[in-house]
Amino acid sequence: MSGVLDESWTWKSWVEAANVAGCGFPLQNLPFCAFRMSDQQPHLGVGIGDRILDLHAASRIGLLKRLPKEVRFACRATYLNDLMECGDAGVARLRRALMAMLAEGADETQKEAVHRSLRAMEGTVFCKPVAIGDYTDFYASIHHATNVGRLFRPDQPLMPNYKWVPIGYHGRASSIVVSGTPVVRPQGQRKLPSAEAPEFGPSRQLDYELELGAYVGEGNALGYPIAIDDAERRIFGYSLVNDWSARDVQAWEYQPLGPFLGKNFATTVSPWVVTSEALAPFRVEMAARAEGDPRPLEYLAATDVQHAGISVQVEVWLSSEAMRAKGMEAVRLCAANARDLYWSFAQMVAHHTSNGCNLETGDLLASGTISGPGDGSRGCLLEMTRRGAEPVRLPTGEVRSFLEDGDEVTLRAFCEREGLPRIGFGECQGRIVPARLPTG
Amino acid sequence: MSGVLDESWTWKSWVEAANVAGCGFPLQNLPFCAFRMSDQQPHLGVGIGDRILDLHAASRIGLLKRLPKEVRFACRATYLNDLMECGDAGVARLRRALMAMLAEGADETQKEAVHRSLRAMEGTVFCKPVAIGDYTDFYASIHHATNVGRLFRPDQPLMPNYKWVPIGYHGRASSIVVSGTPVVRPQGQRKLPSAEAPEFGPSRQLDYELELGAYVGEGNALGYPIAIDDAERRIFGYSLVNDWSARDVQAWEYQPLGPFLGKNFATTVSPWVVTSEALAPFRVEMAARAEGDPRPLEYLAATDVQHAGISVQVEVWLSSEAMRAKGMEAVRLCAANARDLYWSFAQMVAHHTSNGCNLETGDLLASGTISGPGDGSRGCLLEMTRRGAEPVRLPTGEVRSFLEDGDEVTLRAFCEREGLPRIGFGECQGRIVPARLPTG
Fold it and tell me: Which residues of A, range 29-58, sit inside 8 Å of B by Cβ?
């Protein structure tokens, strides 16, 4: 977390695409994923340039033989969970070994075996990388909370608890899908303000939410909170998360117990899990806490505030069916930065466990929609279009208040810092398909 | 679901305790559980009288050899999930076979082998019977919703959506524990109305919630809703659920995303899962829907409204440390009936999946606090004491606004009908232990 760079940050890979500026998957990233070739069980892998190193194959052919048995075996699992349970030290050893074999100047005899374990990234079918037991979604962006609050309560956009409590709620784990999975437009109850009764039908206010998620590595036993300064190391790594939302359903159902069917029809995660280690040089002080804001309560007050945040640029890109038919590229709707969150991931972990609640390996904690202070940095359409009042115009002339069938939403993220290779998160993508009627 | 009784409802068991009036575990119940003997893996079992039939042992010694292989193997698992995946027909066959071997007049040679598979129920260490992927808590009691609403919004106790939407939210699966597990008093943020800032410390308003839970047997694929008339058969069975709540934490945190740390420190389930089959004679029309209430929307409108509810008496019993020291029995704080819920479990299933959300085998759907129309039927202390304004007096002279350390809460439930043996749910019990400080 210190931001001090060891020498390995200057290394290059013999996988040449990894060294191309802006690639996002240099030797220093090596994000984890799970993927499927033909009808095999999913294999775990790490991204390097335009390739995936197949960890299952690497383990089978003895490339990992110097690593502890539990790490070698974990590399043959179908989810990352076993590896996450190996702890910081085990994962760091695996990463060192992989870096050594993929770096320029690697042992030539080994290189051939490594080469045989490389797969082309293009065309890969990715799987959900982690078996997620519980999924919690926070509300950590004060800009998002304020923008949304303003739509509903112009006089008091921010709730009185916001600057004290990292607000969160439990999401649905079963409907988390990996990038590329189509999202069926949900049906649900919604009530027009003018209508006497609600009606049931396809949502007319389908939205995306631009989020980062943290996967828990080492959890805690029920009844034993995780202290704030111990929290960051409990996070195995980070991914992109799109918490799709049906705003009309949400608006009608959410009182008094919060979002439910407006959210749980689908949540998309990116295939790649970027390790905390790869993000170390991009730790920064968080930017949203203002002069005069209350000091966090003791259990939320980290010693090292200088590195509590992560500077990750997060973006939303959209293409409509008509755009794709005309060969147009997707347009960027939003660019924000995770350093603008009000609450850090360590604070989320400490808060979540402060009552004794147990986090388990593989649990997902997401940030909630990330918005920045400016107009181009609103992380969902609800905010961006002011609940539909100011629709977005697409290059085709189409307008969008909310998502239409055929729209494809792609989230992207990366870290950049002068003199360092870019650390990319890959993409988190989903296309809206029309609603289905209930089965009879 | 028809309420027509087959002849087996007149049978008796050669396990004599099963035939005692009011026992709750007659031949017709055979609820499932998981239990542990010494340091073995948990075994699955069924309750009969004062005994548990060890399904693992029964399977091993060939007692189940006429059953399909997947059912036999499922009986050797450590959770009920595999059995739940065998479907209605598989479970019904297992129950027939068990009934036949436990009934009076059972084959004498087999009886000895069965006898060897029986364990004493007393002193048994129970385990969580089901691996619960996702846990959803509803708010299905209109009496509870009205009583609680009245405390906060005297003018409009019931939200406008209540009679249209089966309100629910996602709970925390990881912190679900089995009956008998101590409950550590949670710490958390709470703010007195008169205070300028919140403070962090042990909850001063710890409460229980009296609930029934339904375990999902056959789930649905993402994007494919379960139709209302297909919903009941997706429920494998029912249990008692105590959704412990820290009301002070909840009050401060719940806007705008609902309950979170006020709930997720612990949820207790009973060890026993009573099958839908055993409850068939107790199906009734639900009682809470009033003349003039809106007709449920089509996707929530069951064809057979006569049997949409279950007549289950549910109760809360409390003993304090001082009561136990004086040898006093627990006192009953509440007796309510699940037929007084506004929404049926089938409606919860249909609603939950109406947007395409996928339920998975083993998921738990709980009713929310069950309260009846009368004063003696309030299912939590918040309601019963009017948020502490009218404390309850215990036989020792102690008073309770909320739970104190050492208090032991026991939920009980049973079904009764003239001429039939009582079907019991066993107990769902937890004792409050003092808060722990965060680890350093």
Answer: none
